[in-house]
Fold this sequence. Notes:
Two copies of one chain form a homodimer.
Chain A: E1 11-12, H1 13-17, E2 27-32, E3 35-45, E4 56-62, E5 64-69, E6 72-77, E7 80-84, E8 90-105
Antiparallel strand pairs in A: 2-3, 3-8, 4-7, 4-8, 5-6, 5-8
Amino acid sequence: MGGTTINFDAINFKEKLSNFNEHWSPKIIAEMNNYQFKLAKIQGEFVWHDHKDTDEVFIVLEGEMSIAFRDKEVKLSKGEMFVVPKAVEHKPYAEKECHIMLVEPKGVINTGDTHSELTAENNVWI
Amino acid sequence: MGGTTINFDAINFKEKLSNFNEHWSPKIIAEMNNYQFKLAKIQGEFVWHDHKDTDEVFIVLEGEMSIAFRDKEVKLSKGEMFVVPKAVEHKPYAEKECHIMLVEPKGVINTGDTHSELTAENNVWI
């Protein structure tokens, strides 16, 4: 273990979610290997984008959201998840505020290769 | 995309959990890149083990569980997660049945390097 310090606190989703209010601005709550777990509050429409090098996991913690694909749409409710395959264009949206967890490799930008005013600051921990 | 078929069904945790009853026998529900998301029902004590090459994520979907470490213990309730660092010995347990999601690289064995009657068949999808 050579000096590694382990944080033995459970990571509580509701508590973490209470720390921010912005929409479309994922905050990191945990890392495993080179992957990050991020919480986000979303409402309204995001931009069309894809992630050329990685799949992306969406897990709905509270509320409902949809992920539009060019020829299809997936609806997700609390207690459901979906894996967006790499390089597939998608546009998340939520009519009412929805709380989600994202899983993706370190360094992934929320808008993928689409630069937008919705491009969020990266690597923000809460 | 070249012929990739995307499954556009949401993955519903409760529905997936209704497909099995065994304890300590993780079932795969999704893959992202070379990582797998697995559901498990646990009750009682597991074995001490570690995973030499990878961290391991525990997310509690229903109920309560604990993860014992050699000098500490973490309690986790519904809506909480914990990342067990690689190579750290741990023993999960739950007094009452608890439903969890695990995230780990493909091919990880549930008991790590500890062979046991609790070693589950690997790579089972539901």
